[in-house]
Amino acid sequence: MHGWIGKILRVDLSTGKITKEALDPVMARDYIGARGLGTKFMIDEVDPAVDPLSPQNKLIFVPGPLTGTYAPSGGRYNVVTKGPLTGAIAAANSGGTWGAAFKFAGYDALIFEGKAAKPVYLWIKDQAVELRDAQHMWGKNILGTSDAIRAETDDDAKIACIGKAGENLVLFAAIMNDLHRAAGRSGVGAVMGSKNLKAVAVVGTNGVTTADNAAFEKIVLQARDKIQKHPVGGTGLRLYGTDVLTNILNEVGGYPVKNFQDGYFPTADKLGGETLAKTLLKRPKGCFSCIISCGRVTKVTNKKYAGEGEGPEYESSWGFGGDCLIDNLDAVTKANYICNENGMDTITMAATIACAMELYEMGLITKAETGGLAVEWGNAEVMVELTRLTAMGEGFGKKLAVGSYRLAESYGHPELSMSVKKQEMPAYDSRAIQGIGLNFATANCGAAHVRGYTIAPEVLGTPMKVDKDAVDGKPALVIQFQNLTAALDSTGGCLFTTFGIGAPEYAGMLSALTGVEYTPEAFMNCGERIWNMERQFNLAAGLTAKDDALPPRLTKEPLKTGASKGSVSRVPEMLPVYYELRGWDANGVPTQAKLAALGLAQ
Amino acid sequence: MAKMLMINADKCTGCHNCELACSMFHQGDFSPGTSRVHVFTWEVEGFSVPMMCQHCRDAPCVSVCTPVALTRDPDTGWVNLDEDKCIGCKMCVQACPFGDAIWDEKLKKILKCDNCGGDPQCAKFCPTQAIEWVDDQVATRMRKRGFAEKFKQAFSE
Amino acid sequence: MKVKYFAILRDITKKKEEDWPEPEATVGDLIRDLVVRYGHAFERWVMKDGDLWALVIILVNGHDVRNLKRFATALSPDDVVVIFPPMGGG
Fold it and tell me: What is the number of CB-based contacts under 8 A between chain A and chain C?
């Protein structure tokens, strides 16, 4: 095989048994890799009704065929499992260099089953694979874990691991690799912790081959050129990072403020990418084979919030910033560092704090419970402290560890959790931008912007400009973006390459690399297949059309200020059209005809 | 004027495209283990540097090479390795102060940058010009100019 | 009228925003006068082949001119015009 290695690594943590299996080439062709391949293993091997934190859940680390090659920004991997935060299929996507190292070790996927009796880590050096005792590292943070493992294995080992948050089963715990990159959402880190698995360390000294070196080089150079000529991927993201979106969203009135009570923040500029570049930014950073370099190497010297690391990204800057009514970039960046250092998803952490701020304002959360902390809008110090407490599993942090939905529900107000399928929405107000709202409502992993980033056409105007307030045509647009993204996520490629390239280039790269012929249509078809397979898993897990809904605030409470004031989200009228265009019935269930057309068994 | 690979470490993002291009050109696959350029990344500080053979004028590897497999071409200035003459004694690995001569146990040979015969792939694939193929005198003048500009900024209105 | 600049346009104009007292009938008129003031460095981030670059975000009171009348969009003296060069995504 080319691109793919052809080998799956399976580790039963309950028995300690490690086996190697062949990768079925038909499965590889139809599901590509990463998100698609991981989800296929899940639906074939795991009962969707399983308790996510039980030994019956599986945890799958899986790069794509492009990972390890010089496909531009093509070095990613996914962690696929059933998410404890959502009870739905979860595929967390991460960059850095871990995925490539795993391919060079000689594997396409790593499937963890069961639960270890005591904390362990997996050490992979090419063909040599062993489980090792991790009891002496349990409790260490991401840096401490990485240093300890390298001291025992290899200075060059690439490490994916959890911190205390994963060990304590924080429902939004993340798995971190390369210290600062996160497989962030849906609580994949908690699944890892529930299995007593502390880390996976890899050294890979082999390679990835292509079917046609010359053809692959040619199409890669063409793809690189298109990405570099596009101002967003070629210049903007390297200069300003994703945080440049702060002012853009704010000026169109779609920057959610105070737990989505409104959509405009007068001092948002203090949090934006321009300010970040002038104050905290040291240099840009790229993942494996990346040509975009959106990563931010930063440092905070302000003594109160001192630290260094990477970030904040736009979502994190928004969450700890405007969503909590805070405009102190130092504090926001510190909270981001705490999440990275201990392995937590920044979006859920921040949105949970914002929800807590609203509950505190209503008098439902009191100082008696918070250990005297005033959980007030705009209180940067308390926001940072709550993040730290959650990471450490102390004080009120223990209550925040369940995420905003279960927190709000415990106070009798689940509607104040700004989430879909219990996963918190990121930094775009669905009342100001109609299409993204539909994407949030229907994404299989819960609310997530990266599953169908219609912000690109609706706000940025790329690849073409559509009216953000229009509803006509949005269901079709959302579906197209969701299908393309599902296929792209499965190759190991980075979504930011879509500022420049799309299905034709990905089909061309896959064909030249693997020797398996993909047309652009076949590529998109893979995406649709993967999307429907995720839907099947969720339906079997007990989710229904009722879960394809935004919180009532967005459909009933119009925005009060900013450029989009007076608007509400019209997801309820778009949803039936979406179901129909997807080939699903009125309850959002894929029809037999649709499943058959995609080659999905019922 | 001869050409050289200029390392601009401040521009390196740690993407490893150089290693992939190098191994693809020389070995026909993507195996950074067989690359002649290596990128070193300090994860905590987020700093990366690519390193490859510097083609020294007074090359220690040439001095110690008994079968004269390593020689310096006076016209190009490159230190070239004749693989047919190499006996794999690894004296060059020990002599090079930069660590840029590498013994690969799998391939059973010495790996050393050869400038890809004049079209270095690492410079071609580097997305940020952290590695540049430039005239060796222009290279230093570019850096001087960069700093001179700071004076201009300091003294202009 | 107020004009607000973002991303690289801040470095080019050396401002975050400015009051623009000259009357401008349309967005096109305003951009033309801004190009006169700030030169080619500004123009290359806003114009392409003599027309508004499709990737530039120009908002008039928060509304994207690409969904209005692009350069022909009318302007009033109290309007706030915001200009983003194509830099962002994520």
Answer: 104
Number of structural domains (chain C) is: 1
Say which of A235, A243, A251 has its CB closest to residue C62.
A251
Are B29 and A209 inside 8 Å of each other by CB?
yes
Q: What is the CATH number of the domain that holds C61?
A: 3.10.20.30
- Chain C: residues touching A (Cβ < 8 Å): 4, 6-8, 10, 16, 54-55, 57, 59, 61-64, 66-67, 82, 84-90
Of the candidates A584, A593, A571, the one whose C-alpha atom is nearest the C-alpha of residue A544 is A584
What CATH class is the domain A7-203? alpha beta
Q: Note whether A456 contacts C: Cβ–Cβ < 8 A.
A: yes
Q: What is the pLDDT of residues C26-81, one digit of tens each?
A: 999 999 999 999 999 999 999 999 899 999 999 999 999 999 999 999 999 999 99
Scanning every residue of chain B, which has its alpha carbon at the shortest distance from the alpha carbon of A228? B127
Give the dihedral sign, CA A132/A136/A142/A144. negative
Distance of CA A558 to the CA centre of its chain: 29
CATH architecture of B4-52+114-157: 2-Layer Sandwich (3.30)
List pLDDT tens digits, range A60-87.
999 999 999 999 999 999 999 999 999 9
Location of each CATH 3.30.70.20 domain in chain B: 4-52+114-157, 53-112
| Contact status of A515 with chain C (Cβ, < 8 Å) | no
For residue B1, what pLDDT band results from cuts at 50, 70 and 90? Answer: low
Q: Residue A51 is encoded by which pair of tokens?
A: 């308790």
Range of the domain at C30: 2-84
> Which of A206, A286, A292 is the closest to B14 by Cβ?
A286
pLDDT of B146: 80
For residue A464, CA distances in Å to A366, A384, A457 come to: 49, 39, 6
Chain B: residues touching A (Cβ < 8 Å): 10, 13-17, 20-21, 23-24, 27-34, 41, 43-47, 106, 125, 127-128
Residue C40 lies in a domain: yes
Q: Which chains does A contact via 3+ CB–CB distances below 8 A?
A: B, C
In a domain, C89, yes or no: no
The reply to whether C79 falls in a domain is yes
Segments in chain A below pLDDT 50: none
User: CA C79 to CA C57: how far, in whole Å?
Assistant: 16
Burial of A521 (0-12, 13-18, 19+ CB in 10 A): exposed
**CA A464 and chain centroid, separation:** 25
The CATH T-level fold of domain A242-424 is 1.10.569
Residues of chain C found within 8 Å of residue A274, distances taken between Cβ atoms = 6-7, 10
A143 contacts B46? CB cut-off 8 A:
no
If you average pLDDT over residues C11-36, what whole number do you get? 96
> Which CATH code for domain A434-598?
1.10.599.10
Does C36 fall in a domain? yes
Q: At what angle are helices A34-45 and A474-489 packed, to 10 degrees?
A: 90
Q: Which chain A residues contact residue B16 at CB under 8 A? A: 97, 100, 288-289
DSSP assignment of chain C, as one string?
-EEEE-THHHHHHS-SEEE--S--SBHHHHHHHHHHHH-HHHHTTTEETTEE-TT-EEEETTEEGGGTTGGG-B--TT-EEEEE-S----
The dotted CATH code for B53-112 is 3.30.70.20
Touch criterion met for C and B (3+ Cβ pairs within 8 Å)? no
How far from chain centre, in Å, is Cα A510? Answer: 23
Which among A210, A285, A340 is the top mutation candidate for probing chain B, defined by the most B β-carbons within 10 Å of its own β-carbon?
A285
Q: Where residue B136 falls among pLDDT bands split at 50, 70, 90? A: confident
Q: ipTM score of the complex? A: 0.96
pLDDT confidence of C89, banded at 50, 70, 90?
A: confident
Nearest to A274 among C6, C55, C66 (CB): C6
